[in-house]
Amino acid sequence: MTYFTSWEEFAKAAERLYLADSLKCRFVTKYRHCDGKLSVKVTDDKVCLQYRTEHAQDVKKLEKLTGHLMRHMASKEK
């Protein structure tokens, strides 16, 4: 469980992980106000991708990634 240092790498890996098996993929965010840190974790129980930041501008990037994944979820045909 290593942390990515680049948001772009993390976002691409998270999207690939979701597209590989959407039913097993989980997306978790955690914010610790006392530390001012935002943690994002995407896992399918085999692969765990994590990203941690202290920068406020990364919240917009997180919103963009969440919206992108939600579009994939909404357009999924069964």
TrEMBL record:
One of its GO terms (cellular component) is signal recognition particle, endoplasmic reticulum targeting. InterPro entries: Signal_recog_particle_SRP9/14, SRP9, SRP9-like, SRP9_dom. Its main location: cytoplasm. Residues 5-73 form the SRP9 domain. It comes from the Eukaryota. It is found in: Cytoplasm. Keywords: Cytoplasm, Ribonucleoprotein, RNA-binding, Signal recognition particle. GO terms for biological process: negative regulation of translational elongation; SRP-dependent cotranslational protein targeting to membrane. Component of the signal recognition particle (SRP) complex, a ribonucleoprotein complex that mediates the cotranslational targeting of secretory and membrane proteins to the endoplasmic reticulum (ER). SRP9 together with SRP14 and the Alu portion of the SRP RNA, constitutes the elongation arrest domain of SRP. The complex of SRP9 and SRP14 is required for SRP RNA binding. Belongs to the SRP9 family. This is Signal recognition particle 9 kDa protein.
